[in-house]
Amino acid sequence: MSDEEHQFESKADAGASKTFPQQAGTIRKNGYIVIKNRACKVVEVSTSKTGKHGHAKCHFVAIDIFNGKKLEDIVPSSHNCDVPHVSRTDYQLIDISEDGFVSLLTESGGTKDDLKLPTDDTLLTQIKDGFAEGKDLVVTVMSAMGEEQICALKDIGPK
Question: Which of 56, 81, 92, 153 could form a disulfide with 77 if both were Cys (CB 3.0 to 4.6 A apart)?
């Protein structure tokens, strides 16, 4: 044994994993799946019968939860697929800056200033109009795999 002290610098992310494995055959419609490194919501699942040489296959049709693009994947039903950890958090809207970023009030009383306004036109106009009218607005932020986006809006009345 040596008397030297060793110090290790960890560069790893201490946070929880962005995905977890789940057997393809158990993923259902309205569930989540990772296709081409994108977090997606499953809109259609079809399973083929086992062929002469092997596995039944699951055909997933899914919509990217952040940009709305349609993605498809075919996976043997006995294999594992990555499923993203998707969370939704509500924040109160404080301010909208000229460059399209929003200032949100967190549960702890701090502010979150790193989110842009949503790209969805109807939600964007609802947020801008409600804010211009001086209403108290609560936005729902969906986050998965290191990405975050405003996905819903609640009006909690005038200020």
Answer: 56
CA distance 155 to 126: 10
Per DSSP, the three-state class of 127 is helix
**Confidence (pTM):** 0.78
Provide the mean pLDDT of the chain.
86
At the topology level, CATH places domain 19-84 in SH3 type barrels. (2.30.30)
Interval 66-99: pLDDT, tens: 999 999 999 998 899 999 999 999 999 999 888 8
Domain with CATH 2.40.50.140 in the chain: 86-155
**Which residues are CB-contacts of 154 (< 8 A; sequence separation ≥ 6)?**
90, 137, 138, 139, 140
Q: Which ranges of 61-120 does DSSP label H, i.e. alpha helix?
A: none
